[in-house]
Every structure is written in structure tokens, then in C-alpha cells.
């Protein structure tokens, strides 16, 4: 579906963005912390994505990932900057092993796995995420 021009955008807008709401609120892909995503938040997303062309960039990202059938060759040397990677272990879109595989592409990386957080880890566990970011920045300065 993502490879068909305009179809995913149409799908997401259908029935007042009910599919977008399902992404954010379903048990499989939604927030773990239900208080982290209010009706007002949903309306803000709908408002933003209702603007002409606003849905195409995220859909294009998905299109690009669908086109890559073989793993990319990564340049050497691996990523040099010190890196903090925060991963929600209940991510309904990405495999848990993705975090482990990603840090292998970095020279100096730390992976923080947050057990009760979804793809939307920064909303599900904002205090924990902010704490890890602050610690990381303090170490790096």
C-alpha cells in the first residue's frame, strides 16, 4: 500500500483520521501510558496532518523503507559521535533487536531500553527519557 502514490495519505485521512487514531491508541501500536496521549493531542495531530502535503513526508519515509529489500552497506568508519539510543521495548512498529543492531553502527553508544514504553517512548516515559538525556548531556560536556 505504501508504494502506491497517494493511497496511504488517503487511507490515513479516511473517516476523520480514524486510522491515525488507531495507530496511536491501539493495543498493538499505541501508547503504553494512555494518559500521555489525550483527545486534544489527537486533534492537534489531525489538524497538522490535514494541511496539504503534510502526510506525504512520513509516508515517504515508509515508502523508502519498503523499497530497501537488502541491508544497506554502511560506510566505514562507523558513526563517531557519542550516541544515546532510547528504545521502547513495547514498540509495535520496530523489532526489539533493532536497538541492539543500531548501536553496533556507532563507535561509542549506549542503548537504554525502557520496558513499558511503545514506539512513542518520549511520551510514554517522558520523565525517564528526560533523565537519561540530561545524564548523557552532562557526561558529554
From TrEMBL:
Q: Per its UniProt record, what SUPFAM superfamilies does this chain match?
A: alpha/beta-Hydrolases (SSF53474)
Q: Name one Pfam family in it.
A: Abhydrolase_1
A single MF term (Gene Ontology): epoxide hydrolase activity
Give the source's domain of life in one word. Answer: Eukaryota
Q: Which InterPro entries does the UniProt entry name for this protein? A: AB_hydrolase_1, AB_hydrolase_fold
Q: Where is the AB hydrolase-1 domain?
A: 14-122
Protein name per the record:
Epoxide hydrolase
Supply the source organism's classification.
Eukaryota, Metazoa, Ecdysozoa, Nematoda, Chromadorea
Amino acid at each position: 500500500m505504501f508504494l502506491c502514490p497517494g493511497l496511504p495519505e488517503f487511507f490515513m485521512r479516511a473517516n476523520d483520521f480514524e486510522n491515525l487514531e488507531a495507530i496511536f491508541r491501539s493495543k498493538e501500536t499505541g501508547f503504553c501510558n494512555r494518559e500521555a496521549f489525550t483527545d486534544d493531542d489527537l486533534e492537534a495531530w489531525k489538524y497538522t496532518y490535514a494541511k496539504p502535503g503534510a502526510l506525504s513526508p512520513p509516508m515517504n519515509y515508509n515508502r523508502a523503507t519498503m523499497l530497501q529489500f537488502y541491508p544497506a552497506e554502511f560506510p566505514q568508519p562507523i558513526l563517531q559521535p557519542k550516541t544515546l539510543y532510547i528504545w521502547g521495548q513495547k514498540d509495535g512498529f520496530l523489532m526489539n533487536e533493532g536497538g541492539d543492531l543500531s548501536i553496533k553502527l556507532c563507535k561509542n553508544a549506549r542503548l537504554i531500553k525502557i520496558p513499558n514504553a511503545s514506539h512513542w517512548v518520549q511520551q510514554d516515559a517522558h520523565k525517564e527519557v528526560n533523565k537519561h538525556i540530561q545524564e548523557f548531556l552532562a557526561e558529554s560536556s
